[in-house]
Amino acid sequence: MKEKRNFSKRGTEDYNWVTSLFQAFVRTFILYPFFILFYKVKVEGFKNIPQDRPILVAANHLSYLDPPLIAAVMKRNLAYMAKKELFEVPVLSFLIWHLGAFAVNREKLEVSTIKTAKAVLSNKHWTMALFPQGKRVRNGCLGHVSKGFASLAKISKTDILPIGLTGIQNTAKWPFQGNATVRIGTPISYDLEIEEIEKQWSEQICKLAELKPVENPEELNTHPVPANV
């Protein structure tokens, strides 16, 4: 019986020039033109992206299009933590694996996932992205935020770059019909305490993505649809 592949396990050798070239091609010739054509996407704060070191990108989550949108505007190689269920879809699994994604069990964070994240963030040519909300939230509120991203930042000794997304949740069926904005905040130091990292990220995201902070997110209708990453 064939052993089931562990999609949460990747090493530094996986993030080589072939993977970089493939992602650069998809990002430049497919994703960016698509978002400009259909969503008239605007980017604010691009100068806030550190160019001299790895960074952990942490964005709010509105749509299945969030990961490719961020990859398109960042102009850097991005590795995503993707929910393990996506790797059960044959064609999609092949595509996202070769674009640098790796699996995460949202019920239990595995050691292999942490090791892969550290491998990505130790590569100066790659960076990593995730969504601390854990699922798509479209009601205009921040909702629940997991502290896992802050812990990962401290473990890997990597600063966090907040990114706020607006408008991408509105489906654009025709060119120039959509209107999306990507606002890039200022890096948050991993040297801070976990609670302070979460606090600063939440405050920036509320401003960048025009969200309202909430005291009891469990009581809100947050569209309980599993996040794609």
Keywords for this entry:
about 15% strand, 7-stranded mixed beta sheet, disordered C terminus, 7 strands, about 230 residues, Glycerol-3-phosphate (1)-acyltransferase, globular, about 35% helix, alpha/beta
Biggest sheet overview: 7 strands, mixed
Strand content: 5-15%
Pairing-aware structural class of the strands and helices? Answer: alpha/beta
Q: What is the CATH architecture annotation?
A: 3-Layer(aba) Sandwich
N-to-C SSE string, H for helix and E for strand:
HEEHEHEHEHEEH
Helices, by number, come to 6
Strand order of the largest sheet: 1-7-6-2-5-3-4
CATH superfamily: Glycerol-3-phosphate (1)-acyltransferase
The domain tally reads: 1
CA distance, first residue to last residue: 30 Å
Mean pLDDT: 86
CATH top level class name: Alpha Beta
Shape: globular
Helix content estimate? 25-40%
**Gyration radius, in Å:** 17 Å
Low-confidence stretches: 217-229
Please tally the β strands and state the result. Answer: 7
Query: Can you tell me the CATH topology?
Result: Glycerol-3-phosphate (1)-acyltransferase
Please provide a written account of the structure.
- With 229 residues, the chain is of the alpha/beta class.
- It has a single domain, classed as Glycerol-3-phosphate (1)-acyltransferase (3-Layer(aba) Sandwich), CATH 3.40.1130.
- The chain has a seven-stranded mixed β-sheet with strand order 1-7-6-2-5-3-4, sandwiched between helices.
- Strand 3, helix 3 and strand 4 form a beta-alpha-beta unit.
- Helix 1 crosses helix 2 and helix 5 crosses helix 6.
- The longest helix is centred in the N-terminal third of the chain and has 23 residues.
- The radius of gyration is 17 Å and the shape is globular.
- It starts with 16 loop residues before the first helix and ends in a 21-residue tail after the last helix.
